[in-house]
């Protein structure tokens, strides 16, 4: 991790992850102890793509730490609509804030931003690339239910374009986890992601059907088929709705199975799953507050206010 940026989950060691999650647990147990820790500091929210959970939870997390937030607003009402480059945008905003959260449709955008500014940058999603802060709250949710070792997880849906999947898979290589990936052939993990996982010695298997492995799973992580990522709408319609679960699907699942989803969902998880003991996706979303408070606290604690090189977080 360059200085205090969080760009990809691959930067995070096991120790890094556990340190943030331990702090998140402390925040959840005693949020008042973290109030006003960063009073007077400012977090800039720069979202070039739509967001509800990530934008609002970072906003809420910052304010619970005593920070103020500034928001770039809609891209169409910003100078981006006049042709301003991402490089210039983040260099300008750097002068207004102590940290910057960036979501952008282009893979690699957060890397570029991190190379241009000295304040901490958090990648809140770069196209079909990575979403590391989502991964931290996913891991927090899993750890609270099952721990992160001796874990068997199934990830189902859009594995090709799913940045939450790419980040989570990378982070789980730091733990003793068996990873199963369930998707149609056309939405399997990108070759580059599979290569990176194999290079770490990760235990992964790919499937086109959930049923044969459901009884092995501790966690089922479901993702939306992302219409906005498909270059060809006809390709989207060929796979839309192909992977769905409902309460009947889970009738023979292990009693302690945790069902997760980064949200928003469309039709891949039926509403009747909400009433089962398996559902954790709303709790998962709510975990964005303590985890992002812990992350911001860590990044700002490590950032050097004099502008010299800060302590590295991650490797």
From TrEMBL:
Pfam families found in the cross-reference section: OTCace, OTCace_N
Single Gene Ontology MF annotation: aspartate carbamoyltransferase activity
Annotated L-aspartate binding sites: 82, 163, 224
GO biological process: 'de novo' pyrimidine nucleobase biosynthetic process; 'de novo' UMP biosynthetic process; amino acid metabolic process
Domain Aspartate/ornithine carbamoyltransferase Asp/Orn-binding: 150-298
Residue positions binding carbamoyl phosphate: 53-54, 103, 131, 134, 263-264
Record keywords: Pyrimidine biosynthesis, Transferase
Keyword Transferase in record: yes
Keyword Transferase carried by entry: yes
Enzyme class: transferase
InterPro entries reported in the protein's UniProt record: Asp/Orn_carbamoyltranf_P-bd (IPR006132), Asp/Orn_carbamoylTrfase (IPR006130), Asp/Orn_carbamoylTrfase_sf (IPR036901), Asp_carbamoyltransf (IPR002082), Asp_carbamoyltransf_Asp/Orn-bd (IPR006131)
NCBIfam families membership: asp_carb_tr, PRK00856.1
Subunit structure: Heterooligomer of catalytic and regulatory chains.
Family statement: Belongs to the aspartate/ornithine carbamoyltransferase superfamily. ATCase family.
Name of the protein in its database record: Aspartate carbamoyltransferase
């Amino acid at each position: 991790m360059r200085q205090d940026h969080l760009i990809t989950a691959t930067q995070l060691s096991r120790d890094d992850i556990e340190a943030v999650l331990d702090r998140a647990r402390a925040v959840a147990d005693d949020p008042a102890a973290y109030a006003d820790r960063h009073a007077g500091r400012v977090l800039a929210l720069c979202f070039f793509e739509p967001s509800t959970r990530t934008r609002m939870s970072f906003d809420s997390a910052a304010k619970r730490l005593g920070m103020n937030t500034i928001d770039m607003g809609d891209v169409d009402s910003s100078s981006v609509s006049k042709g301003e480059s991402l490089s210039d945008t983040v260099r300008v905003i750097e002068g207004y804030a102590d940290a910057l959260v960036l979501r952008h449709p282009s893979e690699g955008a957060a890397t570029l931003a991190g190379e241009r500014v000295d304040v901490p940058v958090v990648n809140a999603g770069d196209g079909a690339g990575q979403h590391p802060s989502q991964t931290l709250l996913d891991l927090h949710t899993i750890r609270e239910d099952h721990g992160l070792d001796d874990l068997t997880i199934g990830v189902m849906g859009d594995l090709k374009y799913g940045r939450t999947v790419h980040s989570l898979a990378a982070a789980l290589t730091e733990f003793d986890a068996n990873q199963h990936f369930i998707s149609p052939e056309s939405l399997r993990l990108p070759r580059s992601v599979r290569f990176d996982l194999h290079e770490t010695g990760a235990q992964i298997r790919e499937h086109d059907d959930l049923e044969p492995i459901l009884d092995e799973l501790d966690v089922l992580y479901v993702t939306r088929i992302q219409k906005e990522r498909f270059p060809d709408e006809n390709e989207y319609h060929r796979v839309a709705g192909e992977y769905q679960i409902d309460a009947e699907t889970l009738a023979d699942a292990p009693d302690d199975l945790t069902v997760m989803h980064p949200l928003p969902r469309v039709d891949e998880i039926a509403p009747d799953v909400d009433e089962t003991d398996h559902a954790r996706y709303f709790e998962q979303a709510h975990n964005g507050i303590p985890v992002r408070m812990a992350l911001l606290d860590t990044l700002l604690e490590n950032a050097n206010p004099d502008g010299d090189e800060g302590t590295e977080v991650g490797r």
